[in-house]
Amino acid sequence: MTTLALPPGPALPRAVQAAYALTASQRALRHLRARYGDAFTVNLPVFGRAVMISDPAEIRQLFQTRPEAAENIEPNLGRMLGPGSMFALTGEEHRRQRKLLVPPFHGRRLAAYERIVEEETLRELAAWPQERAFAVQPSTMRITLNAILRAVFGAEGDDLAVLRDLLPGWVALGSRLATLPMAQVDLGRWSPWGRFLRYRRAYDAIIDRLIATALRDGGLDERDDVLALMLQARYDDGTAMSHRDIADQLLTLLTAGHETTATTLAWAVERLRRHPAVLRDLTAEVDAGGRELREATITEVQRVRPVIDLVGRIVTAETLELGRWRLPRGSRVLVSIALIHDNAELFPEPRRFDPYRFAGTKPDLYQWIPFGGGTRRCIGAAFANMEMHVVLRTMLRDFTLVPTDEKDERRHFRGVANAPSKGGQVVVRRRTATERSGDAAAHP
Ligand code: HEM
pLDDT (tens digit, 9 = 90+) per residue, 252-300? Predict the structure, then answer.
């Protein structure tokens, strides 16, 4: 039955709720669920007053709601990434851009990118120290950064080197500024927004050069990178993407895809070292050329350690009937990825890391939602999965990850994603050829 009231929630001031959410987000969420049920009203910076939902039927309904009735809420990120960014666009303009951006991330294309990811992984693994603890996240960050710069931007040589230096600092600064609504004032060369704009000018110059080279050199139709595909793509009316829009979208793809994938990989390492039986089975599977358990492991890592906690929508219809709630225009709805993944009815013993629960099956995409859902679902999901596959396969083929009984790493919010607090500590030993063939024989 529909009620007219919004769900109840804590009456604490916004700053207190924010501090609690930032320092103990998982605990805070579970506490709120225990107290108020699976929907409650919160008051948070950036989002303001918002209804947080975690009931599977209500989430499904929200994701299936037309954009005319509920739109995306990402105003600040859009401002950071430029007006042509997917995050800044809504309605018809968003649909138009999405139609051009989705094809490069599917099917045959992804196979072409596997080689790049494997090369970048091997380059990184070559520098790994043995028998000594180190944080794996900086490594996975470099792998996913280089993979995107090559596969998506089509950058090589000097341009690749310059972008590699420029982008991480800029994205980190932009993510921080995105959470501060008042920070977008240019107070000169050294002010945060002044620095941000300087980065932008340098970036635009490189993208202009990449585009000019691509158009001048010809052979565009033989290239697989996303920049080349964008240059050839046409809207329904036959027009091409503007170069400024291409620059904004490339930056969006990098911001959305680099740290999220790298952090999920760091969690995979963190989880696997604490689950030696899974690690053993996975390694045997790699040696035997299989992939089913690896696929299930990637799915399970994203369930127990989703790097993005929530996705949001704003009601644009006069009212939206959402399950038990009737939400007036302007209401903000946050889907709690963390809470639905922690639902014991959907995932028995939800806090247990158990990849076998997904072996041989595909998760329900309205219940397993690390990539969000509906018309705004992550367009890089298949790309990210391909990257994680190749990195894990290469890592487990060449190295033994030494198990540990250290405490689980806690979640630490890094600006874009929730990362393992110690960066995913790892100790590795390079595997010998005999070990590899021996394992294959032991696990036919
Ligand atoms: C494990 C890695 C990743 C995770 C966990 C992730 C997660 C997400 C989430 C939660 C959203 C919001 C969805 C919604 O509002 O319903 C999103 C959107 C998006 N992601 Fe990803 N993402 C990942 C990797 C990538 C990669 C590799 C790319 C591209 C190279 C990418 C590009 C995008 C874009 C462009 C959007 C905006 C889609 C739109 O507004 O229509 N993501 N992602």
Answer: 999 899 999 999 999 999 999 999 999 999 999 999 999 999 999 999 9
Distance between CA atoms of residues 86 and 252, nearest Å = 7
Contact 79, 184 (CB under 8 A): yes
Residue 371 CA to ligand 1 centre (angstroms)? 6
Kindly report the length of the chain.
444
Q: Is the pTM for the entire model greater than 0.90? A: yes
The total of other beta-carbon atoms located within 10 Å of residue 227's CB is 23
Q: Which DSSP letter does residue 9 get?
A: -
Helix axes 381-398, 108-125, angle to 10 degrees: 40
> Amino acid letter at 306?
P
Query: Ligand 1 in contact with 96 (CB < 6 A)?
Result: no
Q: ∠ CA(233), CA(236), CA(242), 5° rounding? A: 50
The helix (H) or strand (E) run that includes residue 332 is: strand 332-336
Q: Is-contact 310 336, C-beta < 8 A? A: yes
SS3 call for 190:
coil
